[in-house]
Amino acid sequence: VEDKVLTMSSTVWWEGAEKTRVLIASDSGCGGNKPGELLTLRHPKSDNGTCYLFSNEMLQEIQWFKQSYGSWFLGDYISQDGSLYMATPVDPVFILLPIFDEARMKKGEDPGKFRQLDEILFVEGYPEYQHLLPLAEKCMEIVCQTQEVGSMKFYRLDNSKVLAWLSCKVSCLKKTLPELDKNYAAQGEKQTLVDAVSIVGEYLKTEPWLKLLYDHLGLEFVDPTMKETNKENLPNANENKMEYSNSSQEKANKKTGKPGKQIKQAKVETGSKNIRDMFSRACKKKC
């Protein structure tokens, strides 16, 4: 399969061929015209190999969007697959956080070792981390302690700096969510905070960062994997209410011997989607 990386400003340009996959990346603010590179890096939460776009010193994750029904008109050709790959900016600190965490070789209360960047970014099986060397030098001081010995610079991840950075991310997201999705605007402030932590948590390992973040914000930790499993197993809340109401009415009718009126069932809202359900990250096999 041939990959085409295109740019998007006010107009989206398409290249159509039966075995061509189209990636759309915004060119606003890139500050250059260097061709982008597709890098395979470890996903910060799962450690699975994931495809990212690195262009003009900006790291972008590839999002996959597909509706149930949709096709693309490409000139005189119709592509049956209406899916779309889009490259959206991601904070490189999220991607580099587990690499820097492992590199300090922390044991117990020991804060770990200071290491040079080229050492830290030498990741077995993932040589493309070396492309991020200038990017890491610019952004990782926000979560690291640094020491300079002569012309050499050494880095060590600092837990307190990481938590302060994560708290800032959550705070910004909490303010933004109600503006993006009416579902968030209608719920309470605490629940919006929990949702913001949950979204940020998609880029964090449960141990130690996600649990530490919950504790730092004074929230009760909920295992995201268990939460999703429970959602799949539990019936819809509206269905529960309607079943209970119908059952109660049937019992009452049996006692009185009267054919009671059919209870008007609550109308389940349709067509409303959560903003988080619109996109999924493209894993290595899709890229």
TrEMBL record:
The Ribonuclease H2 subunit B wHTH domain sits at: 94-193
Record domain Rnh202 triple barrel: where: 38-91
Q: Where is the stretch described as Disordered?
A: 229-270
Q: Name one Pfam family in it.
A: Ydr279_N
Principal localisation: nucleus
Where does this polypeptide localize?
A: Nucleus
Which PANTHER family is this protein grouped with? Answer: RIBONUCLEASE H2 SUBUNIT B
Q: What does this protein do?
A: Non catalytic subunit of RNase H2, an endonuclease that specifically degrades the RNA of RNA:DNA hybrids. Participates in DNA replication, possibly by mediating the removal of lagging-strand Okazaki fragment RNA primers during DNA replication. Mediates the excision of single ribonucleotides from DNA:RNA duplexes.
**Protein's name according to its UniProt entry:** Ribonuclease H2 subunit B
